[in-house]
Amino acid sequence: MPLHRPRSLERGSRIRSSLSTCPGLLADYLLAYGDETVRAALASGRTIRRGQGRLVRFAAPLALHRAALQQAADLAGEAASPAARKAHRVYASRITTPSTAP
Fold first, then answer.
1. pLDDT of residue 54
2. Which of 4, 26, 53, 60 is 20–30 Å from 85 (CA)?
């Protein structure tokens, strides 16, 4: 007798996680002001030092990356510093650019 697999476990219905890097300034903001889901995803990520700055690389569904970007919308405003605006712009371009990986 064949086993019945729930639809949530079928190959085509899996939620894909995408690996993305978030600038450190944006990650600090989200750790302080983001919701619990975003904070948990960032906490599970890995910090990478690059030159003077740092990046946080974490895997999460694309919807969570977009939610994090939406929650950090204050960093894109005119009241934010130029570094904060650039961090938001860089992360936004990473999220909206379609990946070419298989």
1. 92
2. 60
